[in-house]
């Protein structure tokens, strides 16, 4: 007879039946509504019809909805079951390595076959497009996580997929490109000669490394020109953030399984969807007085939209094809330094995330590139999983919080989002370990210039 | 009130408490014992002491044990909980794509942070080494899966790790190397100038691509020379196969959850540990009359040890430093063609797997390289997961079996091992999609030469 050794629980997992039935829409619970997006010509609030050339109506209605619960279609839940509910880990080995009294939990989205949280919204977006007859999806990708997710979702639903990939990633990440191509997507380096936006940039800067803002312009442009092509965005918009709330909804149940309650909730934020996914369901509870957790969005020091940007109306893209949205921004013409967390290189922050920061429901902090990678290596050696460079920012802040807990001699429960693995980002770890990465100072002058060019609105 | 859409179950998962308490040792149930390993000098059966320079006694005793259940130490089970029990998927989307009446299940070992089944034995081996005072582990890696697993296990237990990586992989797979280095391992291309075995090969073939057989010689040589250094092997040996039986033990429970029973069990086999991991617990039931499943080991057409080799005594390595073992072999001097499933490029097959094939308990088949990759792409587009090139061999056979079921109009339950993901093998997919891969004919002449050089034993 074998006696069972008393084990510590590592994963708090839910069965397939606990995949949420509905996404959570915090708009229903906000103490003050968000500022509306404006038409860049008229400066009047835009309506659903203004967005119709780019998105299917199912998504547009979610974009403007104030319903608290938005039902997840059965087909989307069925696809979620390929990887959801995602695991919640207690980082016991990391806690021991840090010798901290803090409890550290992480919600791990890297189990998605695309390797990150991005697939949560990609399958939803492609589903609504398919339902309304869209044949082709155009999109952009920086780090490659979003492009991989859209390529995969299009393969699942049988739609064509066109990805504009930021030039520097296109060159640095051939494996990412190969993954998208394995799923049948067509991948083009951006800026490209295929669009007016791309050609304009190439004319001024023939060697442009590209940026997310430029790639967005290209993908939007080709969608606007063809009625069978729609555009898919991987972050920033309300409906994208909405789809990610499955992360936080599951985490709330899993933390109950663990019989623990987070004092601090941490997630990295580039466009804001990963942060919103974990945070919004908790912020809904906070608004209702059911949670006192500090909620922290972490951004790179090199691209500090939340901590150094202005909360004003700006364009979502460099080519100024999008509506004007009120958000924390560094200026839509600002091209962030070439940090290795490509998913965090965006000049703005989701209007919804900006709004909850402005309301004081959440706070923001920055992490330097070298600290992020050092944290990632420390995490990997304890927990095994090698995080994506973006996720390293959350890891660094979680470790810093656990160290503070030790210094103060106080227990504290930390929950963070490990939004993806770094399997396709190993060139960044190679560069880090070879001592080739650097920290970036706040790019003050460029940001001042970009902010000076902001449209005078609101 | 939201109504739940009737979902099909995709994953059949077990809680942490169902991680097996013991590994299953089929030696206890074999109708005929295996031929013993022989000392290459005396040609007499070797004893535990002969292996002591290379392995800790805890592993040596497992190597020769005939106990049916060997308890998994609590610390090893605790580490297993970082990723185990691994999921069992029903490949419903693939079934629909194939329009087959077959039920297809896969046991997915890619959830291990090392990305494959290899971590199951790596943590066990490093645990026993740590317990007996080993300071350094030396090993070899071909595809990189084994090296990654050992590097990770050494980081978990605080041991130094030295990996001899087959030259062609070292050059082709910088991400794999980076992963091992992120976990603190020292990685050297093999053949190297660090060992006599390596120098001998380099003298004869200065541009040698290396092979698993050569890299094993190098790793064994440095372990034999230093009392604080032990050697770890990722396949072939009984104790390695034993550790992998957690795969099959969990799968048996999970198939019960699914209320289904496999008619066909499929796994790829290079050294044999992945195959043994899934198959041995089922073969134990087959011996007792509790299962009638066909059990199929799949090998590459370019390195067909089971289907074209001889079942005779041979060396495990190219440098002839190991004992002689009775196995299916293509000859220890045979260097397999440079197929992209590096983990299947081994001249021999585990003695235990060879023995169950010889007893007629299992059968073997081959898959060509292009068919393997085509199957991998088809699988990925349906299921999302992009398989390791090795695992593609099992995918191809599972698909072929499902297609036969359709042609015969018969239901059939297929269970296969998806031993790892292909995230670190995307250069192979790039080459495949660019049309640069080829099939290999059975390398008849080279194998005849290598077999002619076999030692005359038994």
SSE topology sketch:
The structure is a homodimer of 458-residue chains.
Chain A: E1 11-12, E2 22-24, H1 48-51, H2 57-64, E3 69-71, H3 74-80, E4 88-90, H4 92-98, E5 103-108, H5 119-131, E6 136-141, H6 145-157, E7 160-166, H7 167-172, H8 174-182, E8 186-190, H9 196-204, H10 212-225, E9 229-231, H11 238-243, H12 245-257, E10 264-268, H13 273-287, E11 294-300, H14 305-308, E12 310-315, E13 324-329, H15 351-358, E14 363-367, H16 369-383, H17 389-408, E15 413-418, H18 426-433, H19 444-452
Note the beta-strand portion of chain A: 15-25%
Termini distance of chain A?
74 Å
Unreliable parts of chain A: none
Greatest contact between two chains: A-B, 59 and 59 residues
Radius of gyration of chain A: 21 Å
Oligomer: homodimer
Broad shape of chain A:
globular
Structural class of chain A: alpha/beta
Please report the number of helical segments of chain A: 19
What portion of residues of chain A is helical?
Answer: 40-55%
| CATH architecture designation of the domain at 10-18 and 73-115 and 245-452 in chain A | 3-Layer(aba) Sandwich
Please report the total strand number of chain A as a whole number: 15
CATH class of the domain at 10-18 and 73-115 and 245-452 in chain A: Alpha Beta
Main pleated sheet of chain A: 7 strands, mixed
Query: What's the average pLDDT of chain A?
Result: 95
At the third CATH level, what is the topology name of the domain at 10-18 and 73-115 and 245-452 in chain A? Rossmann fold
Task: Please state how the strands of the largest beta sheet of chain A are arranged side by side.
Answer: 1-4-5-15-10-11-14
